[in-house]
Amino acid sequence: MGLFMAGMKTKKTEESVDAFLNGIADEQRRKDSIAVLALMKAAAKADPKMWGGAIVGLGQRTIRYPNGRELDWFSIGFSPRKDALALYLAGGIETHAELVEKLGKYKTGKGCLYIKRLDDINLPALKALLKAAVAAAKDS
Hints:
This protein is of the alpha+beta class. The chain has one domain: Aspartate Aminotransferase, domain 1, CATH 3.90.1150.200.
């Protein structure tokens, strides 16, 4: 299921982001998630919110579909999955291809970027990518 299919059911909640992140069993995934959150907060200049039960999103934008339907969504976000961190970036992966190529070890999926370990990532490139995604969200 793609990001936007999930988005139709995934809504912003008032659940605690800190409680969610502190509840991640895998120590490395928990540390990486907290570090990614700090990078996203700096890029988005926004407080994190839970979206559904497993996505941390920052910022706010409205996605408009060709049929006129609108969907409230976040500018940038992530989800600590079992095998990797899934990063959700406004504008899509293709829009930011030049920055994505500089990241280091990653995989892509439909609408998201998967990072196994933050240690494998070029942090200046990730910071630039997050800023570009926030800018893309403002333009959409």
